[in-house]
Amino acid sequence: MKLATKLIHGGPTVDMQTGALGVPIYQISTYRQTSVDHFSKYDYARGDNPTREALEDTIAVLEGGSRCLAFASGMAAISTTLMIFSPGDHLVVCDDVYGGAYRVLSTIFSRMGIKSTFVDATDLTAIEAAILPETKGIYLETPSNPLLKVTDLRGAAAIARRHGIITLVDNTFMTPYLQRPLELDCDIVLHSGTKFINGHSDVLCGFAVVKDKELGQRIRYIQNAFGTGLGPQDSFLTLRGVKTLKVRMDQSQQNTLKIVEWLKAHERVTAVHYPGLPEHPGHVIHSAQADGPGAVFSFELDSYETTKRLLEGSHLAAFAVSLGGVESIISYPAKMSHASVPKEVRERKGIKDTLVRLSVGLEDPDDLIADLQQAMG
Predict the structure, then answer these.
(1) Is 98 a catalytic residue?
(2) CATH 3.90.1150.10 fits 245-376, yes or no
(3) Where does the pLDDT of residue 209 fall: very low under 50, low under 70, confident under 90, or very high at 90 and above?
(4) Catalytic residue selected from 136, 195, 248, 268
(5) pLDDT band at 196, cuts 50/70/90?
(6) Is the pLDDT at 344 greater than 90, yes or no?
(7) How do residues 13-43 score in pLDDT, each as one tens digit?
(8) Residue 338: is its pLDDT beyond 90?
(9) How many whole angstroms separate alpha carbon 230 and alpha carbon 224?
(10) pLDDT score for 261
């Protein structure tokens, strides 16, 4: 079964009690038991809910994993999954990791005795050089947020195997439609399902997908203990959204390619970061491990004044946090996704005050280009 078909038929598609074409919203907190000695599969919704389970089964199939766990947000998925590590453990992390992940790693998990070393993950030798005897994991994003840096996932996973550690990959930008890290020998895939997987800017959700069943059970135990699971209403909406993932990504990606080419020639644009461009330093590696460049990119402008004018003057592309909706969203990493990263660290990573990120939606690309043009002046 090809992925386009799996999006529709990969998980439960029929309610077995009624024959309804879709899993209903089980908006319930508890379940009646009939035996003192043998509880049924469902007892309390913090642990299990049929609607959430249907979504988890669907995402597990798409990523090629043995198990998926759905969370109340992308950060809930990341933070809960990181709890598999213990005090004294060490992680190697890509240096322009999402700001929320940077925040929990540098200010919360560090207080718990879990340390992180941030490296340029485009350089496999830098990853390996940062591994210590106490290192237990490598945490990656590719393409990264917001500079769209590309990491060789096969190479990173091979390093992890040699050292007996695990590889975690945030796959939010690509989704399982375009990239499947588990097939590249990585161990855990993380998503902010809020973004492209749901695709309608009306849900917060996150996912952790694993190959190894024992690893999945460890994450599941922590999820149940912390109560970070996704609710049934959001599970239902995300099940609805994922069915159109292919057609949305195909159109958004096509729009992106046209807009990127236009921006490259614009006099006020000094750089464009997008792995779909042949001149992108990670283009070859990305093309070998993904099925497309995606619908998110970033670009740099000639001044802060132009940047401010673009962000405040855009009408079609909403100036907002997040990405991956049917509408285009333009954001400002320095004060949005990476606001929690200290300015000197942010600038050292290349996240300048003139950098903007654009998530391209389903509007006509000519209208988006005209809107960007009038905003920049």
Answers:
(1) yes
(2) yes
(3) very high
(4) 195
(5) very high
(6) no
(7) 888 888 889 899 999 999 999 989 888 888 8
(8) no
(9) 11
(10) 98
pLDDT of residue 346: 83
Strand 188-192 and strand 206-210: pairing? antiparallel
Active site residue: 15, 42, 46, 309, which one?
46
pLDDT confidence of residue 350? 86
CB neighbours of 101 closer than 8 A, spacing ≥ 6? 75, 78, 93, 139, 170
Query: Looking at this protein, which amino acid is placed at residue 209?
Result: V
Q: What's the CA gap between 154 and 248, in Å, rounded?
A: 28
DSSP 106: I
* Continuous H helices in 11-121: 50-63, 74-82, 99-103
Of 220, 236, 217, 204, residue with least CA distance to 46: 220
Active site residue 46: yes
Residue 78, pLDDT score: 98
Instruction: Check if 3-242 and 245-376 are the same fold.
Output: no
Cite the DSSP H helix spans in the chain: 3-9, 50-63, 74-82, 99-103, 124-129, 153-163, 175-178, 213-226, 232-242, 245-264, 283-289, 304-313, 343-348, 365-376
Of the residues 6, 48, 96, 98, only one is catalytic, namely 98
Q: Is CATH 3.40.640.10 the classification given to domain 3-242?
A: yes
Q: How confident is the model at residue 377 (pLDDT cuts 50, 70, 90)?
A: confident
Q: What are the residue boundaries of the structural domains of the chain, listed by start?
A: 3-242, 245-376
At 13 the pLDDT is: 86
Give the angle subtended at the CA of 211 by the CAs of 208 and 214, to the nearest 5°: 90
Write down the catalytic residue from 48, 89, 96, 170: 170
